[in-house]
Amino acid sequence: MFPLRSKDAEFPHLPRGFMITNLGHSPNSLPKVATLIDILRYRALQQPDITVYTFLENGERESDHLTYQQLDRKARAIAAQLQSFLAPGERALLLYPPGLEFTCAFFGCLYAGIVAVPGYPPRQNQSLSRLQAIVSDAQASVALTTQSLLANIEKRLAENPELGAVRWVATDNLNSNLASNWQEPTLCESNLAFLQYTSGSTGTPKGVMVSHGNLLYNEQMVKIAYQHTEKTIFVGWLPLFHDMGLIGNVLQPLYLGIPCFLMSPVAFIQMPFRWLQAISRYQATTSGGPNFAYDLCVRKITPEQLASLDLSSWDVAFNGAEPVRADTLERFAATFEPCGFRARAFYPCYGMAETTLFVSGGLKTAPPVVYSVEGAALEQNRVVATVGKQEDARTIVGCGQTWLDQKIAIVNPESLTLCSASQVGEIWVSGPNVTHGYWNRRSETEQTFNAYLADTGEGPFLRTGDLGFLQDGELFITGRLKDVIIIRGRNHYPQDIELTVEQSHPALRPGCGAAFAVEINDQERLVVVAEVERSYLHKLDVNKVVGDICQAVTHQHELQVYAVLLLKTGSIPKTSSGKIQRHACQTGFLKGSLNVVGDWSQDSQNKVKFLQLHTEVESLWQQLQTSKQSELSKETNFLAN
Which domain holds residue 539? Predict the structure, then answer.
Protein backbone atom coordinates (compact mmCIF):
# COMPACT_ATOMS: atom_id res chain seq x y z
CA MET A 1 0.00 0.00 0.00
CA PHE A 2 2.60 2.57 1.14
CA PRO A 3 5.85 0.53 1.25
CA LEU A 4 8.71 1.66 3.42
CA ARG A 5 12.19 2.04 2.00
CA SER A 6 15.36 3.27 3.53
CA LYS A 7 16.41 6.84 2.75
CA ASP A 8 18.68 7.39 -0.20
CA ALA A 9 22.14 8.40 0.96
CA GLU A 10 21.98 11.42 -1.33
CA PHE A 11 18.98 12.80 0.57
CA PRO A 12 19.85 12.59 4.29
CA HIS A 13 17.59 15.55 5.10
CA LEU A 14 14.42 13.58 4.28
CA PRO A 15 12.52 11.85 7.10
CA ARG A 16 12.53 8.12 7.57
CA GLY A 17 10.01 6.29 5.37
CA PHE A 18 10.30 8.30 2.18
CA MET A 19 10.42 6.50 -1.12
CA ILE A 20 12.01 8.77 -3.72
CA THR A 21 10.32 8.02 -7.05
CA ASN A 22 10.30 11.28 -8.98
CA LEU A 23 12.97 13.89 -8.37
CA GLY A 24 11.45 16.28 -10.90
CA HIS A 25 8.04 16.61 -9.24
CA SER A 26 6.58 19.94 -8.16
CA PRO A 27 6.67 20.88 -4.46
CA ASN A 28 2.95 20.07 -4.20
CA SER A 29 3.33 16.46 -5.29
CA LEU A 30 4.42 13.87 -2.75
CA PRO A 31 6.88 11.01 -2.90
CA LYS A 32 5.42 7.83 -1.47
CA VAL A 33 5.20 8.13 2.28
CA ALA A 34 4.30 5.96 5.27
CA THR A 35 2.90 8.42 7.81
CA LEU A 36 1.44 11.90 8.18
CA ILE A 37 4.69 12.93 9.87
CA ASP A 38 6.51 12.26 6.61
CA ILE A 39 4.12 14.55 4.75
CA LEU A 40 4.47 17.53 7.07
CA ARG A 41 8.25 17.11 7.34
CA TYR A 42 8.46 17.02 3.55
CA ARG A 43 6.27 20.11 3.17
CA ALA A 44 8.31 21.97 5.80
CA LEU A 45 11.47 21.25 3.81
CA GLN A 46 10.09 21.88 0.33
CA GLN A 47 7.59 24.69 1.05
CA PRO A 48 8.74 26.16 4.39
CA ASP A 49 7.27 29.66 4.01
CA ILE A 50 4.05 28.71 2.23
CA THR A 51 0.95 29.36 4.36
CA VAL A 52 -1.19 26.24 4.63
CA TYR A 53 -3.83 27.33 7.19
CA THR A 54 -5.46 30.70 7.78
CA PHE A 55 -8.03 31.15 10.54
CA LEU A 56 -10.80 33.70 10.09
CA GLU A 57 -11.87 35.27 13.38
CA ASN A 58 -15.68 35.57 13.39
CA GLY A 59 -15.52 34.04 9.94
CA GLU A 60 -14.22 37.28 8.43
CA ARG A 61 -10.92 38.70 9.74
CA GLU A 62 -7.64 36.84 9.22
CA SER A 63 -6.40 36.39 12.78
CA ASP A 64 -3.86 33.55 12.58
CA HIS A 65 -1.69 31.83 9.97
CA LEU A 66 0.48 28.73 9.86
CA THR A 67 3.22 28.03 7.35
CA TYR A 68 4.48 24.49 6.93
CA GLN A 69 7.65 25.37 8.78
CA GLN A 70 5.77 26.98 11.69
CA LEU A 71 3.44 24.00 11.98
CA ASP A 72 6.38 21.60 11.91
CA ARG A 73 8.23 23.54 14.61
CA LYS A 74 5.20 23.81 16.91
CA ALA A 75 4.42 20.13 16.42
CA ARG A 76 8.00 19.18 17.33
CA ALA A 77 7.87 21.36 20.46
CA ILE A 78 4.62 19.78 21.63
CA ALA A 79 5.94 16.32 20.78
CA ALA A 80 9.12 16.90 22.78
CA GLN A 81 7.04 17.93 25.79
CA LEU A 82 4.88 14.79 25.49
CA GLN A 83 7.90 12.54 25.00
CA SER A 84 9.31 13.80 28.30
CA PHE A 85 6.61 12.00 30.32
CA LEU A 86 4.65 9.70 27.98
CA ALA A 87 5.48 6.44 26.25
CA PRO A 88 4.65 5.91 22.56
CA GLY A 89 1.12 4.62 22.03
CA GLU A 90 -0.42 6.38 25.03
CA ARG A 91 -3.55 8.46 24.42
CA ALA A 92 -3.92 12.23 24.66
CA LEU A 93 -7.27 14.03 24.77
CA LEU A 94 -7.42 17.16 22.59
CA LEU A 95 -9.77 19.91 23.78
CA TYR A 96 -9.46 23.15 21.85
CA PRO A 97 -11.60 26.13 20.94
CA PRO A 98 -11.86 26.99 17.22
CA GLY A 99 -8.49 28.06 15.86
CA LEU A 100 -5.19 26.63 14.68
CA GLU A 101 -3.91 25.38 18.05
CA PHE A 102 -5.85 22.15 17.60
CA THR A 103 -3.94 21.37 14.40
CA CYS A 104 -0.60 22.01 16.11
CA ALA A 105 -1.56 19.71 18.99
CA PHE A 106 -2.83 17.00 16.64
CA PHE A 107 0.46 16.90 14.78
CA GLY A 108 2.33 17.22 18.07
CA CYS A 109 0.75 13.93 19.14
CA LEU A 110 1.65 12.28 15.83
CA TYR A 111 5.23 13.53 16.07
CA ALA A 112 5.49 11.99 19.54
CA GLY A 113 3.96 8.66 18.54
CA ILE A 114 1.03 9.46 20.86
CA VAL A 115 -2.52 8.50 19.84
CA ALA A 116 -4.61 11.68 19.61
CA VAL A 117 -8.20 11.67 20.88
CA PRO A 118 -9.99 14.72 19.44
CA GLY A 119 -12.84 16.04 21.55
CA TYR A 120 -14.84 19.21 21.86
CA PRO A 121 -14.69 21.52 24.87
CA PRO A 122 -17.92 21.47 26.89
CA ARG A 123 -20.01 24.59 27.18
CA GLN A 124 -20.16 26.48 30.46
CA ASN A 125 -23.16 24.63 31.93
CA GLN A 126 -22.89 21.45 29.88
CA SER A 127 -22.51 18.07 31.56
CA LEU A 128 -19.04 16.54 31.41
CA SER A 129 -20.41 12.98 31.37
CA ARG A 130 -19.62 12.32 27.68
CA LEU A 131 -16.12 13.73 28.11
CA GLN A 132 -15.59 11.55 31.17
CA ALA A 133 -16.79 8.50 29.25
CA ILE A 134 -14.32 9.16 26.42
CA VAL A 135 -11.40 9.69 28.81
CA SER A 136 -12.29 6.49 30.64
CA ASP A 137 -12.75 4.44 27.47
CA ALA A 138 -9.59 5.73 25.78
CA GLN A 139 -7.63 5.53 29.05
CA ALA A 140 -6.19 8.95 28.23
CA SER A 141 -3.38 9.98 30.54
CA VAL A 142 -3.02 13.57 29.36
CA ALA A 143 -5.32 16.30 28.05
CA LEU A 144 -4.01 19.04 25.77
CA THR A 145 -5.72 22.41 25.55
CA THR A 146 -5.12 26.18 25.60
CA GLN A 147 -4.26 28.28 28.63
CA SER A 148 -7.57 30.17 28.60
CA LEU A 149 -9.69 27.04 28.22
CA LEU A 150 -7.71 25.26 30.94
CA ALA A 151 -8.44 28.11 33.36
CA ASN A 152 -12.18 27.59 32.78
CA ILE A 153 -12.07 23.80 32.97
CA GLU A 154 -9.91 23.67 36.11
CA LYS A 155 -12.80 25.00 38.18
CA ARG A 156 -14.86 21.95 37.28
CA LEU A 157 -12.19 19.25 37.57
CA ALA A 158 -12.63 18.83 41.32
CA GLU A 159 -16.23 17.71 40.68
CA ASN A 160 -15.15 15.20 38.03
CA PRO A 161 -12.63 12.63 39.37
CA GLU A 162 -12.06 10.99 35.95
CA LEU A 163 -10.99 14.29 34.40
CA GLY A 164 -9.17 15.49 37.51
CA ALA A 165 -6.86 12.48 37.41
CA VAL A 166 -5.67 13.37 33.91
CA ARG A 167 -2.56 15.53 33.47
CA TRP A 168 -3.56 18.81 31.78
CA VAL A 169 -1.12 20.65 29.51
CA ALA A 170 -1.63 24.01 27.80
CA THR A 171 0.20 23.93 24.47
CA ASP A 172 -0.26 27.49 23.26
CA ASN A 173 2.45 28.85 25.58
CA LEU A 174 5.11 26.16 25.19
CA ASN A 175 8.66 27.32 24.47
CA SER A 176 9.30 26.76 20.76
CA ASN A 177 12.95 25.91 21.57
CA LEU A 178 11.68 22.54 22.81
CA ALA A 179 11.47 21.56 19.13
CA SER A 180 15.19 20.79 19.15
CA ASN A 181 14.61 18.07 21.79
CA TRP A 182 12.23 16.10 19.54
CA GLN A 183 13.08 12.48 18.85
CA GLU A 184 11.52 11.10 15.67
CA PRO A 185 9.44 8.01 16.55
CA THR A 186 9.64 4.76 14.64
CA LEU A 187 6.26 4.45 12.94
CA CYS A 188 4.72 2.66 9.98
CA GLU A 189 1.36 2.58 8.22
CA SER A 190 -0.23 0.23 10.75
CA ASN A 191 0.47 2.50 13.74
CA LEU A 192 -2.58 4.28 15.15
CA ALA A 193 -2.73 7.98 14.39
CA PHE A 194 -5.84 8.83 16.43
CA LEU A 195 -9.10 7.61 17.92
CA GLN A 196 -12.18 9.10 16.26
CA TYR A 197 -15.06 8.76 18.68
CA THR A 198 -18.25 8.09 16.78
CA SER A 199 -20.92 10.72 17.05
CA GLY A 200 -23.37 8.35 18.68
CA SER A 201 -26.44 8.96 16.52
CA THR A 202 -27.65 5.39 17.11
CA GLY A 203 -25.78 4.23 20.18
CA THR A 204 -22.97 4.73 22.68
CA PRO A 205 -19.94 6.53 21.19
CA LYS A 206 -17.04 4.22 20.40
CA GLY A 207 -13.40 4.99 19.63
CA VAL A 208 -12.62 4.14 16.01
CA MET A 209 -8.94 3.19 15.59
CA VAL A 210 -7.57 5.15 12.61
CA SER A 211 -4.07 4.31 11.42
CA HIS A 212 -1.61 6.33 9.34
CA GLY A 213 -2.20 3.92 6.46
CA ASN A 214 -5.96 4.43 6.68
CA LEU A 215 -5.51 8.19 6.49
CA LEU A 216 -3.08 8.19 3.58
CA TYR A 217 -5.23 5.81 1.55
CA ASN A 218 -8.40 7.79 2.23
CA GLU A 219 -6.69 11.08 1.37
CA GLN A 220 -5.66 9.56 -1.95
CA MET A 221 -9.24 8.40 -2.54
CA VAL A 222 -10.54 11.92 -1.90
CA LYS A 223 -7.88 13.49 -4.10
CA ILE A 224 -8.75 11.26 -7.05
CA ALA A 225 -12.52 11.30 -6.58
CA TYR A 226 -12.69 15.10 -6.16
CA GLN A 227 -10.05 15.59 -8.90
CA HIS A 228 -8.05 17.86 -6.60
CA THR A 229 -4.89 19.49 -7.95
CA GLU A 230 -2.23 21.96 -6.80
CA LYS A 231 -4.72 24.70 -7.76
CA THR A 232 -7.35 23.51 -5.28
CA ILE A 233 -8.29 25.99 -2.52
CA PHE A 234 -10.28 24.95 0.57
CA VAL A 235 -12.69 26.90 2.76
CA GLY A 236 -14.13 25.12 5.78
CA TRP A 237 -16.22 25.72 8.89
CA LEU A 238 -16.79 22.13 10.05
CA PRO A 239 -15.58 21.30 13.59
CA LEU A 240 -12.01 19.98 13.56
CA PHE A 241 -12.67 17.32 16.21
CA HIS A 242 -15.04 15.65 13.74
CA ASP A 243 -13.79 13.37 10.95
CA MET A 244 -15.15 15.51 8.10
CA GLY A 245 -13.54 18.66 9.49
CA LEU A 246 -10.22 17.04 10.43
CA ILE A 247 -9.64 14.60 7.57
CA GLY A 248 -11.40 16.67 4.93
CA ASN A 249 -10.62 20.30 5.72
CA VAL A 250 -7.27 19.95 7.54
CA LEU A 251 -5.45 16.84 6.31
CA GLN A 252 -6.52 16.95 2.64
CA PRO A 253 -5.00 20.45 2.10
CA LEU A 254 -1.78 19.27 3.78
CA TYR A 255 -1.78 16.15 1.61
CA LEU A 256 -2.22 18.30 -1.50
CA GLY A 257 0.12 21.10 -0.45
CA ILE A 258 -2.54 23.78 -0.98
CA PRO A 259 -4.05 26.58 1.18
CA CYS A 260 -7.05 26.23 3.48
CA PHE A 261 -9.12 28.99 5.11
CA LEU A 262 -10.93 27.97 8.29
CA MET A 263 -13.62 29.52 10.47
CA SER A 264 -15.51 28.29 13.51
CA PRO A 265 -18.84 26.47 13.20
CA VAL A 266 -20.42 29.12 15.44
CA ALA A 267 -19.34 31.90 13.07
CA PHE A 268 -21.09 30.08 10.24
CA ILE A 269 -24.25 29.28 12.20
CA GLN A 270 -24.58 32.86 13.42
CA MET A 271 -24.19 34.26 9.91
CA PRO A 272 -24.18 31.70 7.05
CA PHE A 273 -23.16 34.50 4.67
CA ARG A 274 -19.64 34.31 6.12
CA TRP A 275 -19.11 30.87 4.62
CA LEU A 276 -20.04 31.90 1.09
CA GLN A 277 -18.30 35.23 1.53
CA ALA A 278 -15.03 33.42 2.28
CA ILE A 279 -15.49 31.18 -0.77
CA SER A 280 -16.05 34.29 -2.86
CA ARG A 281 -13.18 36.25 -1.29
CA TYR A 282 -10.53 33.54 -1.64
CA GLN A 283 -12.00 32.01 -4.82
CA ALA A 284 -12.19 28.63 -3.13
CA THR A 285 -12.72 25.57 -5.29
CA THR A 286 -13.72 23.00 -2.62
CA SER A 287 -16.03 23.44 0.35
CA GLY A 288 -19.12 21.81 1.76
CA GLY A 289 -21.15 20.46 4.63
CA PRO A 290 -24.36 18.59 5.41
CA ASN A 291 -27.83 19.41 4.07
CA PHE A 292 -28.69 21.87 6.80
CA ALA A 293 -25.77 24.14 5.83
CA TYR A 294 -27.11 24.67 2.33
CA ASP A 295 -30.67 25.09 3.62
CA LEU A 296 -29.48 27.65 6.16
CA CYS A 297 -27.82 29.72 3.44
CA VAL A 298 -31.02 29.76 1.39
CA ARG A 299 -33.07 30.90 4.37
CA LYS A 300 -30.71 33.40 5.96
CA ILE A 301 -28.67 35.12 3.24
CA THR A 302 -30.30 38.38 2.15
CA PRO A 303 -30.66 39.63 -1.44
CA GLU A 304 -28.16 42.41 -0.64
CA GLN A 305 -25.59 39.88 0.60
CA LEU A 306 -26.26 37.58 -2.34
CA ALA A 307 -25.51 40.40 -4.78
CA SER A 308 -21.96 40.71 -3.39
CA LEU A 309 -20.98 37.06 -3.93
CA ASP A 310 -18.94 35.47 -6.69
CA LEU A 311 -19.20 31.67 -6.43
CA SER A 312 -17.95 30.89 -9.92
CA SER A 313 -14.74 29.29 -8.60
CA TRP A 314 -16.63 26.74 -6.48
CA ASP A 315 -16.47 23.48 -8.43
CA VAL A 316 -16.77 20.89 -5.62
CA ALA A 317 -19.65 21.62 -3.22
CA PHE A 318 -19.64 18.38 -1.27
CA ASN A 319 -22.69 17.27 0.69
CA GLY A 320 -22.09 14.45 3.14
CA ALA A 321 -25.46 14.33 4.91
CA GLU A 322 -27.27 11.03 5.02
CA PRO A 323 -29.27 10.99 2.89
CA VAL A 324 -28.69 13.97 0.60
CA ARG A 325 -31.97 15.71 -0.25
CA ALA A 326 -32.78 16.61 -3.84
CA ASP A 327 -34.89 19.63 -2.86
CA THR A 328 -31.93 21.03 -0.88
CA LEU A 329 -29.75 20.91 -3.99
CA GLU A 330 -32.45 22.44 -6.16
CA ARG A 331 -33.23 25.34 -3.80
CA PHE A 332 -29.57 26.22 -3.26
CA ALA A 333 -28.72 26.06 -6.96
CA ALA A 334 -31.70 28.22 -7.90
CA THR A 335 -30.91 30.79 -5.21
CA PHE A 336 -27.19 31.16 -5.91
CA GLU A 337 -27.08 30.70 -9.67
CA PRO A 338 -27.02 34.52 -10.10
CA CYS A 339 -23.75 34.48 -8.07
CA GLY A 340 -22.09 32.13 -10.54
CA PHE A 341 -22.83 28.89 -8.66
CA ARG A 342 -23.28 25.91 -10.98
CA ALA A 343 -25.59 23.06 -10.02
CA ARG A 344 -23.13 20.52 -11.42
CA ALA A 345 -20.68 21.60 -8.69
CA PHE A 346 -22.75 19.67 -6.15
CA TYR A 347 -20.89 16.59 -5.02
CA PRO A 348 -23.05 14.19 -2.97
CA CYS A 349 -20.87 11.74 -1.08
CA TYR A 350 -21.04 9.10 1.62
CA GLY A 351 -18.74 8.01 4.41
CA MET A 352 -18.26 7.38 8.12
CA ALA A 353 -15.61 7.28 10.83
CA GLU A 354 -15.26 3.51 10.46
CA THR A 355 -14.03 3.99 6.88
CA THR A 356 -11.69 6.82 7.98
CA LEU A 357 -14.01 9.31 6.24
CA PHE A 358 -14.79 8.77 2.56
CA VAL A 359 -16.58 5.80 0.96
CA SER A 360 -18.18 7.04 -2.24
CA GLY A 361 -18.56 10.12 -4.40
CA GLY A 362 -19.54 10.94 -7.96
CA LEU A 363 -17.73 12.23 -10.99
CA LYS A 364 -16.72 15.86 -10.61
CA THR A 365 -17.71 16.63 -14.20
CA ALA A 366 -21.17 15.04 -13.90
CA PRO A 367 -24.27 16.43 -12.17
CA PRO A 368 -25.73 14.57 -9.17
CA VAL A 369 -27.72 11.44 -10.01
CA VAL A 370 -31.36 11.64 -8.93
CA TYR A 371 -33.52 8.50 -8.91
CA SER A 372 -37.27 8.27 -8.35
CA VAL A 373 -38.64 5.04 -6.86
CA GLU A 374 -41.99 3.78 -5.66
CA GLY A 375 -42.44 4.48 -1.96
CA ALA A 376 -44.61 1.43 -1.33
CA ALA A 377 -42.02 -0.86 -2.88
CA LEU A 378 -39.21 0.78 -0.89
CA GLU A 379 -41.10 -0.01 2.30
CA GLN A 380 -40.82 -3.67 1.30
CA ASN A 381 -37.06 -3.30 0.58
CA ARG A 382 -37.68 -3.37 -3.17
CA VAL A 383 -36.35 -0.88 -5.72
CA VAL A 384 -38.95 -0.04 -8.38
CA ALA A 385 -38.37 2.96 -10.63
CA THR A 386 -41.40 5.21 -11.09
CA VAL A 387 -42.98 5.78 -14.47
CA GLY A 388 -44.31 9.31 -14.83
CA LYS A 389 -45.58 11.17 -11.78
CA GLN A 390 -46.71 9.00 -8.88
CA GLU A 391 -48.11 10.21 -5.58
CA ASP A 392 -45.97 7.91 -3.43
CA ALA A 393 -42.73 8.45 -5.39
CA ARG A 394 -39.54 8.92 -3.35
CA THR A 395 -36.70 10.90 -4.85
CA ILE A 396 -33.25 9.68 -3.81
CA VAL A 397 -29.93 11.35 -4.61
CA GLY A 398 -27.03 9.09 -5.54
CA CYS A 399 -23.84 9.28 -3.46
CA GLY A 400 -21.44 8.28 -6.20
CA GLN A 401 -19.29 5.23 -6.73
CA THR A 402 -16.43 3.42 -5.04
CA TRP A 403 -12.80 4.43 -5.71
CA LEU A 404 -9.40 2.74 -5.92
CA ASP A 405 -9.44 -0.79 -4.47
CA GLN A 406 -12.38 -0.30 -2.12
CA LYS A 407 -15.40 -2.55 -2.64
CA ILE A 408 -19.06 -1.86 -1.81
CA ALA A 409 -21.56 -4.70 -1.45
CA ILE A 410 -25.31 -4.59 -0.75
CA VAL A 411 -26.15 -7.47 1.56
CA ASN A 412 -29.32 -8.92 3.06
CA PRO A 413 -28.74 -8.23 6.79
CA GLU A 414 -30.49 -11.46 7.81
CA SER A 415 -29.28 -14.05 5.30
CA LEU A 416 -25.90 -12.29 4.80
CA THR A 417 -26.08 -12.91 1.06
CA LEU A 418 -25.73 -10.40 -1.78
CA CYS A 419 -28.85 -8.50 -2.79
CA SER A 420 -29.92 -8.05 -6.38
CA ALA A 421 -29.98 -4.59 -7.99
CA SER A 422 -33.72 -4.42 -7.25
CA GLN A 423 -33.32 -4.93 -3.50
CA VAL A 424 -32.47 -2.65 -0.60
CA GLY A 425 -29.89 -4.10 1.77
CA GLU A 426 -27.18 -3.22 4.25
CA ILE A 427 -24.13 -1.46 2.82
CA TRP A 428 -20.91 -3.43 3.39
CA VAL A 429 -17.47 -1.99 2.65
CA SER A 430 -14.00 -3.46 2.32
CA GLY A 431 -10.72 -1.72 1.51
CA PRO A 432 -7.55 -0.20 3.00
CA ASN A 433 -9.58 2.79 4.22
CA VAL A 434 -11.59 0.57 6.60
CA THR A 435 -10.16 1.24 10.04
CA HIS A 436 -8.82 -1.22 12.60
CA GLY A 437 -11.95 -1.53 14.73
CA TYR A 438 -13.20 -0.08 18.00
CA TRP A 439 -10.79 0.67 20.81
CA ASN A 440 -10.94 -2.01 23.54
CA ARG A 441 -14.18 -3.46 22.15
CA ARG A 442 -13.28 -6.85 20.74
CA SER A 443 -16.81 -8.21 20.49
CA GLU A 444 -18.22 -5.14 18.71
CA THR A 445 -15.19 -5.00 16.44
CA GLU A 446 -15.67 -8.63 15.46
CA GLN A 447 -19.37 -8.09 14.79
CA THR A 448 -18.97 -4.87 12.77
CA PHE A 449 -15.58 -5.15 11.04
CA ASN A 450 -15.31 -8.87 10.31
CA ALA A 451 -18.42 -9.76 8.33
CA TYR A 452 -18.32 -12.46 5.64
CA LEU A 453 -20.82 -13.32 2.91
CA ALA A 454 -22.61 -16.52 3.88
CA ASP A 455 -22.78 -17.97 0.36
CA THR A 456 -19.30 -17.15 -0.99
CA GLY A 457 -17.26 -16.66 2.18
CA GLU A 458 -15.91 -13.38 0.80
CA GLY A 459 -14.69 -10.91 3.41
CA PRO A 460 -13.95 -9.40 5.75
CA PHE A 461 -16.35 -6.49 5.27
CA LEU A 462 -17.35 -3.58 7.46
CA ARG A 463 -21.08 -3.63 8.22
CA THR A 464 -22.02 0.05 8.03
CA GLY A 465 -25.50 -0.28 9.50
CA ASP A 466 -26.76 1.86 6.62
CA LEU A 467 -29.35 0.72 4.09
CA GLY A 468 -29.17 1.35 0.37
CA PHE A 469 -28.88 -0.08 -3.10
CA LEU A 470 -26.62 0.06 -6.17
CA GLN A 471 -27.74 1.03 -9.66
CA ASP A 472 -25.09 0.90 -12.39
CA GLY A 473 -22.40 1.34 -9.74
CA GLU A 474 -24.11 4.38 -8.17
CA LEU A 475 -24.77 4.08 -4.42
CA PHE A 476 -28.13 5.25 -3.07
CA ILE A 477 -28.68 5.61 0.69
CA THR A 478 -32.17 4.97 2.00
CA GLY A 479 -31.68 5.02 5.77
CA ARG A 480 -30.09 3.39 8.79
CA LEU A 481 -30.76 -0.22 9.68
CA LYS A 482 -31.21 0.59 13.37
CA ASP A 483 -33.44 3.60 12.68
CA VAL A 484 -35.92 1.93 10.33
CA ILE A 485 -39.45 2.14 11.73
CA ILE A 486 -41.42 -1.06 11.14
CA ILE A 487 -45.17 -0.68 11.72
CA ARG A 488 -47.67 -3.28 10.56
CA GLY A 489 -44.93 -5.03 8.60
CA ARG A 490 -43.98 -1.98 6.55
CA ASN A 491 -40.61 -0.22 6.62
CA HIS A 492 -40.67 3.55 7.10
CA TYR A 493 -37.51 5.60 6.92
CA PRO A 494 -37.46 8.24 9.67
CA GLN A 495 -35.83 10.89 7.49
CA ASP A 496 -38.81 10.72 5.09
CA ILE A 497 -41.25 11.25 7.96
CA GLU A 498 -39.06 14.00 9.44
CA LEU A 499 -39.09 15.90 6.14
CA THR A 500 -42.89 15.65 6.01
CA VAL A 501 -43.11 16.92 9.58
CA GLU A 502 -40.82 19.94 9.14
CA GLN A 503 -42.79 21.00 6.04
CA SER A 504 -46.17 20.67 7.77
CA HIS A 505 -46.04 23.97 9.69
CA PRO A 506 -43.77 27.07 9.59
CA ALA A 507 -43.28 26.94 13.38
CA LEU A 508 -41.06 23.86 13.04
CA ARG A 509 -37.30 24.21 12.58
CA PRO A 510 -35.88 22.49 9.47
CA GLY A 511 -33.47 19.65 10.21
CA CYS A 512 -34.41 19.63 13.90
CA GLY A 513 -36.92 16.82 14.19
CA ALA A 514 -36.85 13.08 14.86
CA ALA A 515 -39.21 10.23 14.13
CA PHE A 516 -38.91 6.90 15.93
CA ALA A 517 -40.98 3.99 17.18
CA VAL A 518 -41.88 2.97 20.74
CA GLU A 519 -43.58 -0.18 21.89
CA ILE A 520 -47.01 0.43 23.41
CA ASN A 521 -49.11 -2.55 24.47
CA ASP A 522 -46.94 -4.89 22.35
CA GLN A 523 -47.34 -2.69 19.27
CA GLU A 524 -44.86 -0.37 17.54
CA ARG A 525 -46.20 3.19 17.55
CA LEU A 526 -44.85 6.31 15.84
CA VAL A 527 -43.54 9.23 17.89
CA VAL A 528 -42.46 12.58 16.48
CA VAL A 529 -40.38 15.21 18.28
CA ALA A 530 -39.66 18.57 16.65
CA GLU A 531 -38.02 21.83 17.65
CA VAL A 532 -40.03 25.04 17.47
CA GLU A 533 -38.62 28.17 15.82
CA ARG A 534 -37.70 30.73 18.46
CA SER A 535 -40.02 33.36 16.97
CA TYR A 536 -43.01 31.04 17.54
CA LEU A 537 -42.34 30.12 21.17
CA HIS A 538 -44.48 32.89 22.66
CA LYS A 539 -47.35 32.52 20.21
CA LEU A 540 -47.35 28.76 19.79
CA ASP A 541 -50.67 27.19 18.88
CA VAL A 542 -49.90 23.64 19.99
CA ASN A 543 -53.18 22.16 18.78
CA LYS A 544 -52.75 23.64 15.30
CA VAL A 545 -49.15 22.50 14.94
CA VAL A 546 -49.90 18.99 16.23
CA GLY A 547 -52.93 18.75 14.00
CA ASP A 548 -50.94 19.74 10.92
CA ILE A 549 -48.19 17.24 11.77
CA CYS A 550 -50.61 14.34 12.23
CA GLN A 551 -52.56 15.20 9.10
CA ALA A 552 -49.41 15.48 6.96
CA VAL A 553 -47.92 12.19 8.23
CA THR A 554 -51.19 10.34 7.75
CA HIS A 555 -51.61 11.71 4.23
CA GLN A 556 -48.01 11.16 3.07
CA HIS A 557 -47.14 7.91 4.85
CA GLU A 558 -50.49 6.33 5.81
CA LEU A 559 -49.33 6.27 9.41
CA GLN A 560 -51.09 7.24 12.60
CA VAL A 561 -48.97 9.34 14.94
CA TYR A 562 -49.06 8.13 18.53
CA ALA A 563 -47.40 11.16 20.16
CA VAL A 564 -45.96 14.57 19.24
CA LEU A 565 -43.52 16.52 21.39
CA LEU A 566 -42.71 20.12 20.49
CA LEU A 567 -39.30 21.07 21.87
CA LYS A 568 -37.62 24.30 22.89
CA THR A 569 -35.37 25.85 20.25
CA GLY A 570 -31.89 24.30 20.21
CA SER A 571 -32.71 21.49 22.65
CA ILE A 572 -33.11 18.38 20.48
CA PRO A 573 -30.29 15.86 21.09
CA LYS A 574 -27.66 16.09 18.34
CA THR A 575 -24.22 14.64 17.82
CA SER A 576 -21.11 16.79 17.72
CA SER A 577 -21.40 16.79 13.93
CA GLY A 578 -24.99 18.00 13.94
CA LYS A 579 -26.80 14.71 13.30
CA ILE A 580 -30.07 14.11 15.11
CA GLN A 581 -29.69 11.46 17.81
CA ARG A 582 -32.89 9.50 17.29
CA HIS A 583 -31.95 6.97 19.95
CA ALA A 584 -31.40 9.76 22.51
CA CYS A 585 -34.72 11.32 21.47
CA GLN A 586 -36.45 7.99 22.03
CA THR A 587 -34.80 7.61 25.45
CA GLY A 588 -35.72 11.20 26.36
CA PHE A 589 -39.33 10.57 25.34
CA LEU A 590 -39.59 7.45 27.47
CA LYS A 591 -37.90 9.11 30.47
CA GLY A 592 -39.73 12.41 30.06
CA SER A 593 -36.42 14.32 29.98
CA LEU A 594 -36.82 16.32 26.76
CA ASN A 595 -37.29 20.10 26.94
CA VAL A 596 -40.95 20.18 25.93
CA VAL A 597 -42.96 23.34 25.17
CA GLY A 598 -46.05 21.47 23.98
CA ASP A 599 -47.13 17.87 23.62
CA TRP A 600 -49.93 15.56 22.63
CA SER A 601 -50.47 11.82 22.58
CA GLN A 602 -53.28 9.42 21.85
CA ASP A 603 -53.16 8.32 25.47
CA SER A 604 -53.72 11.87 26.68
CA GLN A 605 -56.47 12.32 24.09
CA ASN A 606 -58.08 9.06 25.16
CA LYS A 607 -57.73 10.10 28.79
CA VAL A 608 -59.51 13.35 28.04
CA LYS A 609 -62.24 11.45 26.21
CA PHE A 610 -62.52 9.06 29.17
CA LEU A 611 -62.76 11.94 31.65
CA GLN A 612 -65.38 13.62 29.46
CA LEU A 613 -67.32 10.36 29.24
CA HIS A 614 -66.91 9.76 32.97
CA THR A 615 -68.25 13.27 33.70
CA GLU A 616 -71.19 12.74 31.38
CA VAL A 617 -72.01 9.36 32.99
CA GLU A 618 -71.67 10.88 36.47
CA SER A 619 -74.00 13.70 35.47
CA LEU A 620 -76.54 11.26 34.03
CA TRP A 621 -76.27 9.19 37.19
CA GLN A 622 -76.91 12.24 39.36
CA GLN A 623 -79.84 13.20 37.16
CA LEU A 624 -81.19 9.67 37.44
CA GLN A 625 -80.79 9.65 41.21
CA THR A 626 -82.47 13.06 41.46
CA SER A 627 -85.25 11.85 39.21
CA LYS A 628 -85.69 8.71 41.31
CA GLN A 629 -85.71 10.73 44.52
CA SER A 630 -88.29 13.02 43.03
CA GLU A 631 -90.47 10.13 41.90
CA LEU A 632 -90.04 8.45 45.30
CA SER A 633 -91.01 11.64 47.05
CA LYS A 634 -94.13 11.92 44.89
CA GLU A 635 -95.04 8.31 45.60
CA THR A 636 -94.52 8.83 49.36
CA ASN A 637 -96.63 11.94 49.37
CA PHE A 638 -99.36 10.14 47.42
CA LEU A 639 -99.46 7.23 49.90
CA ALA A 640 -99.35 9.54 52.84
CA ASN A 641 -102.39 11.37 51.56
Answer: 485-604
